Amino acid sequence: MKIVEVTWHDASSPTFRTWYSSEDMERVNANPDCTHIGFVYAETDTYITIVSGVMGEGEDWQMVSSPFTIPKGCIKKIRRLK
After folding, report:
1. What is the pLDDT of residue 23?
2. d(Cα 67, Cα 52) in Å, to the nearest integer?
3. Do residues 12 and 42 touch, judged by C-beta distance below 8 A?
4. What pTM does this model have?
5. Based on the number of CB atoms within 10 Å of its own CB, is 79 exposed (0-12), middle (13-18) or buried (19 or more)?
6. What are the b/e assignments for 2-28, b being 16+ CB within 10 Å?
């Protein structure tokens, strides 16, 4: 069972109003990096899907919880934990 820590840069879209000054946009575009830790459910050339919990033995997962898919273009680092 592969457990990873994925550091990635999130996209954003402010929704609290419709008009923004240049100063506002500088703050909006300064998104911090995000980190997710979980079991690797699927990985391709374009994305990785991790889940927070699994039900089943070994790699025979009957159920998973909290699937989260991250596009590879947003990923800064993947570190294997186990």
Report:
1. 80
2. 7
3. no
4. 0.78
5. exposed
6. eebebebeeeeeeeeeeeeeeeeeeee
- d(CA 37, CA 23) in angstroms, rounded, equals 34
Answer for the pair 76, 7: CB distance below 8 angstroms, yes or no. Answer: yes
Grouping H, G, I as helix, E, B as strand and the rest as coil, residue 48 is strand
Q: Which residue is associated with the tokens 């590879």?
A: 72
Dig out the tokens for 44 from the structure. Answer: 């391709």
Which range among 59-63, 65-69, 72-76 shows the weakest confidence by mean pLDDT? 59-63
- The 10 Å Cβ neighbour count of residue 37 is 12
Which is it for the CA torsion 36, 39, 40, 42, positive or negative?
negative
